Amino acid sequence: MTQTITVIRGDGIGPEIMDATLHVLDSMNLGLQYEFADAGLVALEKQGELLPAATMDSIRKNRIALKSPLTTPVGEGFSSINVELRKRFDLYANVRPAKSFPNTKSRFPSGVDLITVRENTEGAYIGEGQTLSADGEVATLTQKITRRGSERIVRYAFELARRTGRKKVTIVHKANILKSTSGLFLKTARAVATEYPDIECNEMIVDNTCMQLVMRPEQFDIIVTTNLFGDIISDLCAGLVGGLGLAPGANIGTDAAIFEAVHGTAPDIAGQGKANPCALLLAAAQMLDHLAMPEKATRLREAIIATLEAKDSLTPDLGGSGNTMSFAKAIATRI
Ligand code: ATP
């Protein structure tokens, strides 16, 4: 069966890492067809809009998008196109794996293999009700947490654990202080957890979680938390395993899912063939899992690991003298 996916090549290093990623996917005979669509600066330049209707229609129709980083110019309507996409498609689950890979600048060369599941649509992060008093002395923000939003993200985390054979879910909160919002999240999460007696569940306050992650990351398997805590924790976890060059992310909703590299457009190295394509490749592996092709996803991950192990054609950020496409070709050869 042929599956069409929307492909957004993006800005900065986006086109280079996307070409490299598609080269690898093409070598796998996946039956994927690509529908190219623009967003970000390139769309603004070509079509006069950051997020053209045709791009939205393409994602809506195909339900799956693979997306490179985008530039959101200041003063162009959105604070972030990524946040706008999450909002418009109700992509409520932000899924960020962090895994130790060989020959990377990891703090923990082995032993980190965890996934942060971050609620993506509510809480302080979305910036609702922001005000600044006329004299500039007082600022406010509304933080809204709902039972529905909490329930669906925690359920997603437990279902992910079951699907992937993971054993434990840690509910991360600050209910001791934020009794209403974090309190509702925790109470809802506890209730959902009772439906999954086969999965171990524990609770941890967010500040302690940060310390534990840095000291003993191997104790974590899946972390589920609210939007702002998840934003911070998932980058902390990327740091544990060698930085953003290896950090993929999925934004998943009921009607659509967008897979992306977590890093930005890296304008300092754009167009030079220096960009590491691993984060987008690992996002593509998440996409294959989502498309019910877990064996293909595993093959892709194993080929990335084998290429890192062999130090074959690695990009300069990994200490190699290869380039974006030669790295991708080395991975494709191993597949
Ligand atoms: P943006 O404004 O889009 O967020 P940025 O440069 O501020 O871009 P990042 O793109 O995340 O933020 O880059 C931070 C640093 O990491 C830069 O020095 C960049 O060159 C480097 N970097 C980011 N992604 C990669 C990559 N895939 N390969 C190699 N280096 C990268």
TrEMBL record:
Cite the InterPro entries for this sequence.
Answer: IsoCit/isopropylmalate_DH_CS, IsoPropMal-DH-like_dom
Which SUPFAM superfamilies does the entry link to? Isocitrate/Isopropylmalate dehydrogenase-like (SSF53659)
A Pfam family: Iso_dh
Q: What is its EC number?
A: 1.1.1.41
Q: Domain Isopropylmalate dehydrogenase-like spans what residues?
A: 4-331
Drop me one GO molecular function for this one. Answer: isocitrate dehydrogenase (NAD+) activity
Domain of life, per UniProt, equals Bacteria
Keywords (alphabetical) are: Oxidoreductase
* Gene3D superfamilies, sorted: Isopropylmalate Dehydrogenase
PANTHER family per UniProt: DECARBOXYLATING DEHYDROGENASES-ISOCITRATE, ISOPROPYLMALATE, TARTRATE, ISOCITRATE DEHYDROGENASE [NAD] SUBUNIT ALPHA, MITOCHONDRIAL
Q: Which NCBIfam families match?
A: PRK08997.1 (NF006529)
Q: Identify its protein family.
A: Belongs to the isocitrate and isopropylmalate dehydrogenases family.
Instruction: Report what the protein is called.
Output: Isocitrate dehydrogenase
